[in-house]
């Protein structure tokens, strides 16, 4: 029985439960080993913030995602015996310009909402541009951030959502959203939020939005663009204290106001959905078939 072309892609090749367990373990090991340099950098940075430049710390922290992406890609190709690009599009053909359009739309919506927030609360922002750190950070954002966000989307929404969803669609949506939230429970900003439950509502909500968007659009093209734009925005344009990834941004908020941040995100999401049909061709309501 056909569920959804995007979800049904998991039925190609080997789809046994044991293969998923093996791949999950291999990806976990790759992430663990790849994270060792980043863990060393973070310990060094916390002991002495001047010991390492920000862009080097971030580069080392992102290596775990790079290693995980490579292993996931190889596992899907050689263990599941299917085209890894099917984690993005069921046809295996990816519309790369559409991903960039999705990223651009999210970036513009974010900038509009941020500007409105600044006009309302100018005291919550401070100019923090440091070209010495910003320019190398720009290179990191171009080279490594797409790999980090791509791994998260491919693993949670491509691999796991397709796999679990091929057995039960709603179980796939809910389980992957919860796991995505829990994967962020160790982020440094959780302590600053002061409530793990509140933070999990946000992260699980983000995961749920990406999962539903992938299912509705029948591809990961739009979530890939959004996730990249969201992380680049926070990494280069407007940062906040207690971020789990050190960055050199143009502006910095004076405090982590979590309720305000969540409100901003919801408004950006609403603007994106309002404009997505025209800009990226998102059909929220399926067209009737004759």
Provide an overview of this structure:
- This protein is an all-alpha fold and about 290 residues long.
- Helix content is about 70%, strand content about 5%.
- The chain has 13 helices and 3 strands, in the order ααααααβααααααββα.
- The chain has helices at about 5-10, 15-35, 35-45, 55-60, 65-80, 95-120, 130-145, 145-165, 170-185, 190-195, 195-215, 220-235, 260-280; strands at about 125, 240, 250-255.
- It has a 3-stranded mixed beta sheet with strand order 1-3-2.
- Helix 2 (about 15-35) runs antiparallel to helix 5.
Task: Lay out the secondary structure.
Blueprint: H1 5-8, H2 17-34, H3 36-47, H4 54-61, H5 63-78, H6 96-120, E1 125-127, H7 131-143, H8 145-165, H9 169-183, H10 189-193, H11 196-217, H12 221-237, E2 238-239, E3 251-253, H13 258-280
Helix pairs in contact: 2-5, 3-4, 4-7, 5-8, 6-12, 6-13, 8-9, 8-11, 8-12, 9-11
H-E string = HHHHHHEHHHHHHEEH
Radius of gyration, whole Å: 19 Å
Q: Specify the biggest β-sheet.
A: 3 strands, mixed
Q: Average pLDDT across residues?
A: 91
Structural class: mainly alpha
Shape: globular
- Strand line-up in the sheet with most strands: 1-3-2
DSSP summary, beta strand count: 3
Taking the alpha carbons of the first and last residues, their distance comes to: 20 Å
Low-confidence stretches: none
Please report which band the strand proportion falls in: under 5%, 5-15%, 15-25%, 25-35%, 35-45% or over 45%.
under 5%
Number of helices: 13
Q: Provide the helix percentage.
A: 55-70%
């Amino acid at each position: 029985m056909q569920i959804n072309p995007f979800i049904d892609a998991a039925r190609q090749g080997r789809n046994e439960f044991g293969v998923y367990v093996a791949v999950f373990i291999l990806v976990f090991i790759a992430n663990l080993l790849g994270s060792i340099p980043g863990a060393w950098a973070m310990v060094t940075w916390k002991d002495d913030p001047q010991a390492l430049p920000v862009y080097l710390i971030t580069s080392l922290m992102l290596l775990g995602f790079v290693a995980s992406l490579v292993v996931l890609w190889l596992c899907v190709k050689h263990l599941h015996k299917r085209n890894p690009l099917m984690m993005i599009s069921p046809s295996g053909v990816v519309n790369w310009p559409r991903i960039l359009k999705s990223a651009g739309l999210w970036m513009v919506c974010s900038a509009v909402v941020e500007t409105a927030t600044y006009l309302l609360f100018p005291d919550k922002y401070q100019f923090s541009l440091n070209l010495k750190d910003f320019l190398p950070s720009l290179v990191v954002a171009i080279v490594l951030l797409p790999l980090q966000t791509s791994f998260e989307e491919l693993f949670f929404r491509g691999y796991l959502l397709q796999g679990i969803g091929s057995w039960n669609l709603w179980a796939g949506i809910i389980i992957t959203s919860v796991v995505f939230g829990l994967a962020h429970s160790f982020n440094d900003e959780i302590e600053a939020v002061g409530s793990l439950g509140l933070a999990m509502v946000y992260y699980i909500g983000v995961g749920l939005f990406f999962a539903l968007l992938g299912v509705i659009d029948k591809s990961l093209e739009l979530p890939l663009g959004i996730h990249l734009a969201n992380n680049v925005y926070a990494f280069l344009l407007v940062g906040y204290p207690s971020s789990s990834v050190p960055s050199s941004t143009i502006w910095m908020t004076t405090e982590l106001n979590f309720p305000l941040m969540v409100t901003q995100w919801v408004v950006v999401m609403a603007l994106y959905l309002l404009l997505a049909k025209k800009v990226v061709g998102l059909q929220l309501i399926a067209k009737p078939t004759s």
